[in-house]
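Onboarding guide, step 5: your first structure request.
Type a short instruction followed by the sequence, for example:

Predict the 3D structure of this protein.
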Amino acid sequence: MDLTRLLLDAPSPFADPVVRLDLEAPPPPDVPAVHASVRTAIAEAITVVARDRRAQMVLVTGDPGMGKTHQLAHLRQRSDGQYVCVDVPPLKDTSPFGHVARYMVQGLAAAGVLERLLWDVLRQVAVAVRADADEHGDDDVVARIDDALVGSDRFAMAFRSMAQQDPELGPLLYKRGRRLAPLSTLPADFGRVLGRITDREAERAIVDWLRAAELAEEDLALLGLEHGVDTEARAFEVVRALCLSSQRPVVLCLDQLESISGLIGASGVARLFTALMELYQQAPVAIVLMCQTQQWVELRRDVPQAAVDRIRVLPPLAKPTADEALAIVASRLDAVWTAYGVTSPHATWPFAEASVRNLVEERRPTIRGLLLEIDAQLAEMRRTGDIGAAPLAPPPIDERSALRAARDRYRRVADERRELATPAFREELLRHAVLDVLDHARQSNAPIGGVRIAMVTNPEKPKVGPRPPAIITLETPAGPRRLAVDVHSSEPRSTHRVLARLRDLVDEHAADCAVLLREREAPLPESAKRSHELLDELGQRGGALIWLEEADAMRLVGAELLLDAAGAAEVLVGTRNASREEVLGFLFEDDRLGELLVPLVSRGTSTPPRAVRAV
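The system replies with structure tokens like these:
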């Protein structure tokens, strides 16, 4: 095969220098020797958790593009069933445990680990209850459990198949085993929910309860509970219980810590690390933190001293040496040759070893900078058709084309991520995206559907209960109009609670009308009678339910993922990082996201003033 033609036609192996924490996408080529000490330190921390059931917390710092996210991607790849990696995106509100619980459950579910974890624990409960019943001569209970127990503890899913033939077995195990290990070490509500897992009808409600979703009364009744995970204390209990229940160490990975200070402020940083310290003290967990070096210097001032004392801060990631740079370039090229079953003249062909060394010695690039420079050189070779020629100055960067490519990439990420495959799991990202678009329209004085946004009020989530709807103030010819807005695509049986909150805001004169945005992929069945009654009440007050098509929802979710990446300095335009504000402006103008929200905004402008409606 002609290597020159192959390199001209094959996709550039250097084209995507930003690593994505995507369960479905394979990690980029790896050079284990680069930052080997960091890998060793993280591996040692996980070993301590596995061996001693003692928590560890490790912080990795480094400049943008030094390979922090790359380390997390390969940490998951190297797990080989020895530990469970959970990626927690940057905190966006004042509820750190609710945030961690939500993404921990979604991550475990997406990795196919959650069900096994829960059934493993219930099997341990069954073994303990059987031993206790045998000791007390309760032969009926022994026989009932024996009907479900199959093989050794490696056969938890076989136990599941047998146990689900007896839906009431789980509640019996909870009742008889709550004073025995392992249930005695777990929160009562968690144990009660675990006991319902033998009922197939309860499986969805169990996952929703664990991820702190708002549940309808009938779902709570199905689980034998009076309340959901609606406080920080309850969310903490879920996270702690999952860590205690997992037979393998749970590794919580918090990337891009530098992005949180601008979103939640100094008090939010203190709350987050206080929450992590609570978890550190009460559960066997490995917490791996990633942060830009200079930003950690700033963040550290707001971190409680107790957390600082327990975090093992590793030396900042160093820029690649010439030998490491050669190995990185060779690993990317080797992926091409291996795919086509060919051998290149030398490891870095068509790039001369001397030119790569000169690049490193003269410019001292980060890993990302190195890949960008090599990609630009390859692009020039392709443009001229002269593979192996001495590189000329790269062509100027088309910034809008670079941003469009980033937008398309993160839209694909939204489509590919397994944990975002259902409307309920992408609901929070969709809400953030809608409010980000509306707030950008306010800041830039850009109309949506001919209407200007005067104010966007997004209340913080209270310590107890759900987050209140947002209030959008619109400028209309008839004067300001306040529009209450919420997004809800979770279980239809809980929708009536959201609708009731929206209605109450109108009745209490906090808003002129109210709108619920919901994905069409999550319809409201006729059986949701209370929701339909409340929709009629909203309609009488000028409000409505607005449906969002799945394709439009995924556009907004992809945009929010891109904005998160920009906040972590991971969206590149040439060799510089695009800011979050720049990316949001581009999405608003080029992607025309404002048009998706025209039906929402129009509802506020078409609603008569309250005085007119009263007449």
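Each response can be followed by summary notes, for example: Residues 114-135 form the longest helix (22 residues).
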